[in-house]
Amino acid sequence: MFIALVLLIGGGVLFGAVLAFLEAVRNRRRKPMWRSNAHIAAALLALYGMVGFFGAALSATGGLRWLPRTTQFPMGFVDGAVTDRAGNFYCPSTSFGRIQVYDRNRQFLYGWFVDASGGSFRIHMDPEDRLEVVTARGRTRYLFDLHGKHISRSHYPPKSYSDFDHWKGVPVWIPNPIFLLPLSSPFGSLGTALLGIVVLNWTGRKKKRSPRDTPKPTEDPPPSNPRSDLT
User: Fold this and answer.
1) 220: in domain
2) Given this model, what pLDDT does residue 198 score?
């Protein structure tokens, strides 16, 4: 149900962004070149941010589980990564509901999705080199091997999610192309979309005419006096 709602809202917003882009392209000749190009770029920026924002929401709620393990999502700064004995990094991404694995040189290896119901989760490496995952929503505790194979699932009441605050992990920076950095978090995607919308609104405004640009109405010649014509 929640996935369908995300698809409905996201589809409507993306459709509006596509219409704004097409409208900008159609009216590009009616404005100065710099203004029309800025209008088109702003429409693309808004569309890009919306795709990232609703794509992350769809991923976190389980709508992209059909993607293969080799699909890499943008990460950027990760707080709470853990390492195994080989030095590989296991990086949680609450934004996408996913765990991604990188080697010691921070090159992507593989990843898998975690059913966290769109909420936050923490990871921890146990003494047997297995990955423990606890979710805030549903109070679920998962156990995976280092290749992402699901081993077990349980619940942890009456404990609370804050009881796992000691699972801090380590901060790590995962390099990404610059154009993908805004998509590494929902706030970055939403900020990109809002920036595009603001610029789109500014470049779409009609220029106000000054009094000098307003054409003066033509005055009709005064009517001729028929009496003066007779004299």
Assistant:
1) no
2) 85
